[in-house]
Amino acid sequence: MSDRSEGGFPTRRLIVMRHAQAAPAPFGEMGMHADLERPLTPHGHETAARQGAWLRARHFAPELVLVSPSLRTRQTLDAIGSFYGDQAPDIRYVNTLYDATAETIRDSLYAVPDKINNIMILGHNPGLQGLVLHWAGGHCPPGLENMLIRGFPPASIACFTTDQRWNTATDGEIRLVELSCQ
What we know:
182 residues; six-stranded mixed sheet; alpha/beta
């Protein structure tokens, strides 16, 4: 993935990632609190670590990471490990990303300052899958359609780019460029 568009302006990158595989809530525990405290499984830790290596291989260095406050999303971020480069991103835990719709997730980008180019959003389905399908719809790169048909399983990553600021880019200006589904 290049950091420059054809016109010489910075290409902004967005990684949308679903948390890795989580354990079910303990038997008999129900409700939002029990769901928020679900930890990753050993398999979830492994796939998140593999996805971290995948991101580093693509030289992805986010300036900002927006994370749902659930335990499984926080553990996914930890299991990813460091990002490419030596600058740590600004990590923000955003309550509205838990149980968010695609529109709520998109709205979180409207609050991002103009100067932020590379962002990661780490959250949950069905909102993430809805957003990925919405942005990919009608202009999905060849070869990625089959992966999109399978959905957006745990630890999946969708990479998007735009030449516009994230807080002003229209849906048509946001392009899916890569998918990694575990």
